[in-house]
Amino acid sequence: MRSSKFVRALPAAVTAVLALTAGQAVAAPASAAPAEHTAAARTVTYDASGAAEFKDAVAKGAAVWNESVVNVQLKPVASGQRANVRIIADNGWPRTLSTGLGSGTIYFGREAVDEGYNTVRISSHELGHILGLPDMKPGPCSSLMSGSTAGVSCTNPNPNAAEKAEVEDSFGLVGAGATAAATPRMYRD
Ligand SMILES: [Zn+2]
Q1: For a Cys staple, 155 with which of 60, 79, 118, 146, CB 3.0–4.6 Å?
Q2: Ligand 1: distance of its center to the CA of 127 in Å?
Q3: What is the pLDDT of residues 108-148, one digit of tens each?
Q4: Residue 45 gets which letter from DSSP?
Q5: Which interval of the chain is the signal sequence (predicted)?
């Protein structure tokens, strides 16, 4: 039952990709994914062109997630394509507008950086919101989603086991490319 549902979901996902890329060169479909990821890995693209001095922290935060989970992978968007996620540096507090699982806008706020918070932890924390995780505050440094409540001295950019499992579950359930309807939500940290 579960596997037949998953198989039926794939053509819809492919159709969505084709619709999004209509009029442009269509990227290679899931068959280009590494064999060990078989059918389930979904690619979420990000555009860090507005991330100013935080571009490197964004890439490192994405790498953290790519090493932590298999059901979703974060990749820089190809030139001329629309990204699922935009990262924009600004002078406010870091925050993320989620517009659905795997999509939204991250505001990489300098306010927290100026206070001394670690930029890679900020990056992977905000990407965690993009991947469907809520804030889990207050919490220890071992929790990525405890965010600023772990203190300025906390530089851990890695999700803990529960945080990884939640992301794996979310993306495993929707399958490759399928996005559940979602109400936009702002995470103000
Ligand atoms: Zn947060």
Answers
A1: 118
A2: 9
A3: 999 999 999 999 999 999 999 999 999 999 999 999 999 99
A4: E
A5: 1-27
